[in-house]
């Protein structure tokens, strides 16, 4: 058994899973996180007044096809069944998302069957656009002006802070419409919500005698000597003091409010109209429908450009950012003894299951390399 100490920056899912895997192999693990709590952006907290489990950094629904990841998370908590069914308000009506047969029939005032709806949408599509270049062209080509303007245009504009004419077609890869009444947002085999929230689950992952966690502690490069390796799940550009500029992110502002009763009757209500400044309202008690609550906690969600000091949420990853990212990656590859991991360390949007899969693989690769070196 080794008594080397490894430093992990970030007590989110990436840091917790890597830490746990290495702790189980005898490494001493020190984890630092600048926040006052563990679990990173998956953090959940029970509201004392209403008893609602609040998803503090926005709603998180666990969904995966990865059997090992599903077994892994179930080893630390009990998952309750949960299906994500999203509604949207547009032009004074409420519709079902993702756009499905119900949405199409309601929007056009029809009673189409699947094949009829497919033919009908083909007649709506703008076939004069032969080679769509922008998000807008792609959407018009796929679904036509009516559905595009009601369900894609306003929401996308608010989410990305620019016109869909300025976004690449690649953002809308496939036909974003279902020709049946399936309104479960995800297709994955396993979907659910941890019974007592994500923070309890991650506390379970971190609960190992070889792991020490220090909260409200910022990582400083100059104070990182003496560790046999560092796994860094903070922002990639932040590690290098933004020397090559700041990688672009969107951030979110949450306007929290409580309600005495049931505010909107569902967990997520999107707002497709640009006249409404927020993108959606989330009502958190509906993320744990098996619980009793004494009121409701809701978030109005606003998206805007991330400024220094804001929490980075969604990496923008357009042409300019990707070029800058390549420069940072080249720098990171020169950094001996440091592995950059997670959504911020690799500047990618990663679902939780992918985060866990990558963390498990990263830890195993590290262990395999160490074993190889020891055998030489
Ligand atoms: P993080 O959770 O961001 O953890 C990184 C940690 O590092 C943070 O705690 C931070 O405080 C700490 N840190 C950063 N810099 C430093 C530093 N210099 N010093 C010390 N500590 C530092 N995934 C799903 O599967 N389903 C969903 O429904 C879903 N919804 C999402 C909704 C939103 C709005 C967002 C943004 C993401 C969503 N995700 C969802 C993705 C999920 O949040 C990520 O998979 C997960 O948070 C990644 O974990 P991480 O550990 O890589 O990063």
Automatic annotation (TrEMBL):
Q: Which UniProt keywords apply?
A: FAD, Flavoprotein, Isomerase
Give GO MF terms, alphabetically. Answer: flavin adenine dinucleotide binding; UDP-galactopyranose mutase activity
Record organism: Shinella zoogloeoides (Crabtreella saccharophila)
Protein name from the UniProt record: UDP-galactopyranose mutase
EC number, as in UniProt: 5.4.99.9
NCBIfam families documented for this protein? UDP-GALP_mutase
Cross-referenced InterPro entries: UDP-GALP_mutase, UDP-GalPyranose_mutase_C
Required co-factors: FAD
EC top class named in words: isomerase
Family per record: Belongs to the UDP-galactopyranose/dTDP-fucopyranose mutase family.
Q: Which domain of life is it from?
A: Bacteria
All copies of the UDP-galactopyranose mutase C-terminal domain together span 150-349
Name the gene behind this protein.
Answer: glf
